[in-house]
Amino acid sequence: TFEATAGLTASRRDYTTAVTVGESSQFSPDWKAKLTRPYAGGSATLDYSGNVGLSNRMETRTITTVDPVTLQDVDEVTTSESDETNTSNKLDLAGNYKIGLKTDVNLRSSASRNKFQYLSQVDSLLGQQGTRIREGKNANLQFNTTAIPGVDIKSRAIYTVNETDYALERIRTTKSTTAETGADINYNGWDTGRWIFKMKRTDERRDLQTSQAGDVAKTQASVDYKQDILDNIALESAFFITLDRYEFDDKEANTNDRDLRTRRGSFRVRYNPHSTVTSSVRMEIRQTESIYIQASRSGSNSTDYAYVISPQYTWKLGKANFSGDFTADARYKVQDFQDDSNKLNRVFSTRQKWQQAFNSRFSTEVVAFWEFSDQGSYNRSTLDGRRRFIRTGENRKLRLETKLRYEFIKGFTSRVEYRSDEDDSYIINSGEKSLSNQFPQRQFLYAVDFKKTVMDHIRLDVKFSQTFKDGDNVRETERNFYSIRAQLTYDPFKPKKEN
Predict the structure, then answer these.
(1) Distance (Å, rounded) from C-alpha 317 to C-alpha 301?
(2) What's the CA gap between 112 and 121, in Å, rounded?
(3) What is the 3-state secondary structure (H, E, C) of 51-75?
(4) Which of 145, 298, 367, 403 is the most exposed place for a label (fewest CB within 10 A)?
(5) Residue 8: which residues within 8 A CB-CB, separation 6 or more?
(6) Residue 149 burial class via C-beta count within 10 angstroms: exposed 0-12, middle 13-18, buried 19 and up
């Protein structure tokens, strides 16, 4: 079978940074093609996708300096304009083959190349056009078999190469090579329970232009146990252990060679008292040890402890769906040789969602998220020598999201979305709390989607959206952005509709 898709997108965005006000307009055609070929014992699929973005960008920068003679602020305004050509191409190849009744082999590989042009924001290169090229290659081989009844084995080998080249800023050029092997063993020894054993080894080589260049080796192993206790009660538990080793090339510039060992145990109970109500409680305990290899850094050795409890629920009431969770998270950092530097972070958060389908055309979704956290350290008293917890900071976050969707006629839909974010940070000093940062942000979006089957083998999809953002912390992000996209899908092998 063969399927092809072509589309056009026109967009414009306005953005603001600390010293820059810019605008960018882009016209972008894109295309996709997919070929599937079955054969005895399996099938093969070839996917290709690509696009070209032709854009024009203009930036005005205002840099304020102090005149050495008059000692007054002087604004230096410069304007840069550039024509940019951005391209993206990706090729995916997948195949599978079944050996007998119990074994199958899957092979997936991909290659991609993306080119992106931009105006540099680096002080020494401000306003100059730069080009970033990203290339990626990936190969994934999986082997699945049923060794004996009730025991399934899944093994895999993955090789990945990612490279990013900056023609203007060579120091940002990076290359990473990753090799991964792993196996999962599923044991379904009885009808109501099962064991899952997982093992994975990952070796990564990081070729960077900075002192972060080096090697990372990660070894992971885990055991999962799942058991149905009653018809409406289920138990899930897991034990997880990892050992990560970081070795950097430049031992003098980077002394962070270390071993990182993590142990994690989790426990979840699911209880479904009614067909319309589900609930669960998840508990997790995690220990992470960080041990530095170089003797000069041994004073930084530490152990982190994390304790998490999170009840969750869903409730379906007619055409309305309610869901939510509550999470309490405490993290205690212990310095092996500096007990006065031990720290404690506490977080409580909740997320509540309401979804309502009023009729077949009109639906809404409302999401509320609230988080409270505080931080502190343990300091030893000079009076009695005892260590006491002293709060040093506090954070409060509130996010509200509202989405409305209305279908005027079949294939013609409109959407309206609004989001509000509040993020306040406080500093606590000698028991006195003062506001240190406040980051409010608002976002409004409206969109129209139109879908139409033009002919038996051709489908048209047109999308328009407009986004407005406001907030002091909107950094190099769209303040005012719209996008128009038209897409044609051609499927010559799609069966014709019968009259």
Answers:
(1) 52
(2) 27
(3) EEEEEEEEEEEEEEEECCCCCCEEE
(4) 298
(5) 27, 28, 29, 30, 485, 486, 487
(6) exposed
For 141, left (φ over 0), alpha (ψ -120 to 50), or beta? beta
309, 282 in Cβ contact below 8 A? yes
Question: Is residue 353 within 8 Å of 367, Cβ to Cβ?
Answer: yes
Q: Which is nearest to 223 in space by CA: 186, 256, 275?
A: 186
Tell which residue, 138, 202, 130, has the closest CA to residue 170.
Answer: 130
- 60-105 tens-digit pLDDT: 887 777 777 777 777 778 888 889 999 999 999 999 999 988 899 9
pLDDT in tens, 249-301: 999 899 999 999 999 999 999 999 999 999 999 999 999 999 999 888 888 89
For the residues 373-390, what does the mean pLDDT come to? 81
One DSSP character per residue, 287-336 reads EEEEEESSGGGGGG-EEEEEEEEEEEEEEEETTEEEEEEEEEEEEEEEES
Q: DSSP strand E in 129-232: where?
A: 129-148, 151-166, 174-190, 193-208, 214-230
List the structure tokens of 107: 């092979």
Judged by average pLDDT, the poorest of 217-226, 394-403, 422-431 is: 422-431
Radius of gyration of the chain (CA): 28
- Domains annotated for the chain, with CATH where assigned, are 44-52+66-451+467-472 (2.40.170.20)
pLDDT at 474 over 60: no
Burial of 15 (C-beta count, 10 Å sphere; 0-12/13-18/19+): buried
Q: Ramachandran region of residue 212, left (φ > 0), alpha (ψ -120 to 50) or beta?
A: alpha
Tokens representing 322? 């309610």
